Amino acid sequence: MSNPTRLGQLDLNLLTLFDALLREQSVTRAAEAVGVTQSAVSHALNRLRDFFDDPLFVKAPEGMVPTRKAEALKPAVVDIVAAIRQRILSEAAFDPATSHRIFTLCMTDMGELVFLPPLLNQFRALAPRCRVRTLQVPSEQIEGLLSSGEADLALGSIRTAPEGLYRQRLFMHLLVTIVSARNRQVGEQLTLQQFEQMPHVAVSLAGRPGDAYDSALEEQGIKRTIFLATPHFLTVPLLLEQQPDLIATVPLELANVFQRYGTVRVVQPPVELAPYALNQHWHPRFHHDPAVVWIRELVKKTFEGYPDHAARKGEAQLRQDVRR
């Protein structure tokens, strides 16, 4: 039988900080995630240690590592904190103008470069006290992050997203090929033979060619040589600048950003590639959470300027640029 006096020593704030320490494994980052001072987290950790009669977290080179008891408590703590967010806090109204909430978004470095700036403009206007954090993780970890509440949304073209997640289309991507501005082998047109023989840089969050964002090329029977698979979009123009014989196929919006810096130029792939969807994903546990409802509606509204017709417009512009 539980001891009511002992239960009263464990308030919800302690569990919230316990959850943050489990996720962040750092007093500093846990304080930032919850919106309190580092001393408040340290004080809470001392109370938790007294309550459980265990160090719970010990210093290690990789951060504050949970002890065996903390690992054993983790599923219960995560479930309790998630239940509080879903069943109790979800009943409270969310006011973006006054909230100090931290929103966590899973996205690639491409998302940070192309899509995060317009979203932050909306945040600063509508939710000036809120903060935004981004995570770049392999797709197989996304469901767990959304389920635990560590992340609010996942944005991107997640080809292997779990079926249990909610999904909403934001807009359609076009894929184009970029070559170094110093590349003299490729003219205004890229032949299929050139495309198959030239060494490619493929972007994959898992770093594996088979999981690449441009894997639609293989689905069309194209046999290309992938020289490098990388999880980072932003390294691609630098690699092409240093190795002018390399080529890459990337989303049009990103290619336009790269092209503005003068290191690459955009050409059409030798075969027509169907546009693919950029979506936002969230977990059913937080479907009715007012803050999550607000952020996903904001994301949807922000990218109303990138609908399907924008993809067609971008394709027409690309063809015009190639003819020049």
Automatic annotation (TrEMBL):
Keyword match Translocase: no
PROSITE patterns on file: HTH_LYSR
Gene3D superfamilies in the cross-refs: Periplasmic binding protein-like II, Winged helix-like DNA-binding domain superfamily/Winged helix DNA-binding domain
Pfam families: HTH_1, LysR_substrate
Keyword Hydrolase: no
Coiled-coil residue windows: none
Keywords: DNA-binding, Transcription, Transcription regulation
Domain HTH lysR-type: 10-67
Similarity field: Belongs to the LysR transcriptional regulatory family.
Protein name listed in UniProt: LysR family transcriptional regulator
Species: Variovorax ureilyticus
